[in-house]
Amino acid sequence: MLTPDSLDTTPEAAVGVAGPVPGHPGVYRVMVTTSLGDAYPVEVGPGILRRLPELLEERAQAHRYVVIGDKQVMRFHAHRLGTVLEDAGLRVDSVEFPEGEEHKTRTEWARLTDTLLKLGVGRDGCVLALGGGVTGDLAGFVAATYMRGVPVVQLPTSLVAMVDSSVGGKTGVDVPAGKNLVGAFHPPRLVLADTDLTRTLPRAERSQGLVEAVKHGAIADGDYLARIQELAPRLLEGEENSTAQIVIRSVEIKAGVVSRDEREGGLRQVLNFGHTLGHALEAASEYRLPHGTAVAVGMVLEARLGERLGVTRSGTARHLEAVARALDVPVAPPPGLPLEKALDHLKRDKKVRGGEVRFVLLDEPGQVHRGEAGSEAWSHPVPARLVREVLQSSGSVDD
Ligand SMILES: NC(=O)c1ccc[n+]([C@@H]2O[C@H](COP(=O)([O-])OP(=O)(O)OC[C@H]3O[C@@H](n4cnc5c(N)ncnc54)[C@H](O)[C@@H]3O)[C@@H](O)[C@H]2O)c1
Ligand SMILES: [Zn+2]
Q1: Which atom from ligand 1 is nearest to the alpha carbon of 212?
Q2: Architecture of domain 273-393
């Protein structure tokens, strides 16, 4: 299993293992190392926003703080965050932008940057990104470039952000040529995931976010995958204990991977499982297909590719399908999705090398296929003909 501590036996193998925070029941901490060799903590637990001043003091001391969040998240949670910070005597400003992926743009980056300049924020300022993945990426990119870089603290509020995007240091914006094509690696000083904040998250956003947790189970921990399926009804209701459990395990898995390969030179590719086809389907739908759904379909189809190649244990695709269904996520592309467009997009994918599309394949649920024993090859070329066949067999796609 690609569990964080079974990957290797080097001293940093303890990285990516959650431990309880002494004196704070229910709070867990996972350390993530960056390519520069330093490390930042991810803390997960219910109600831990109140720990923020203490953690800022420890990890991100600044002359002043600027909270950046989208309007929807700010409406629910800005007041509480502001109170926590002001009660601790910290200087805080808040800046908002309209919610939605369509605002993760250079225009919004420029507007937010200009606002910080107008506020007179200097190099001794610190950005607090309060929100989902859009906020984390956009505010993170503002921080990465503001006066050549100021610290950012990630305060994820969606499940996507808690289990995935707040950890790993990728920031950026979308451009007309594609999503996430302009950005920077800018690891946070600290990630604080207060699972209570997910109470206001719409059910559909929960479903979508949990797909990334399914991916973590698929690539690293078969038992975890089974646990997600079992807890699905409670997770969709937003039951706190189950939500915290899932966030902690996903953060462990993601932290274990990005700590070893922040810049996607090798191992980090495993996080692309389901995403190669997922991105192609999203693009073919002109981004009408939600990301989680696209990745769920992508994982099922990529598992099927592996099964057809004789690499992946038979039944794996069905297993992933069952987990996605339990989370109320569709597992087939919507009728009428243009197959040729998806195939065209695959050819232009960043992961194409030497004209062949490469895929992360599984041996079985919880284990990524590595080629010959000990091989560092985390992705494998798949014949275009087979990709076409598997896409066609997904049922709802017309040619
Ligand atoms: N940097 C990375 O490594 C990485 C990884 C995965 C995804 N991403 C990015 O993340 C983005 C998707 O993230 P997302 O799904 O969180 O999108 P999002 O930030 O747009 O959040 C989804 C919606 O939920 C709302 N929301 C968030 N938290 C809420 C809460 N607690 N209560 C009520 N409403 C809330 C938001 O206002 C928004 O309308 C994409 O842009 C994707 O590219 C980045
Ligand atoms: Zn994803």
Answers
A1: 6
A2: Up-down Bundle (1.20)
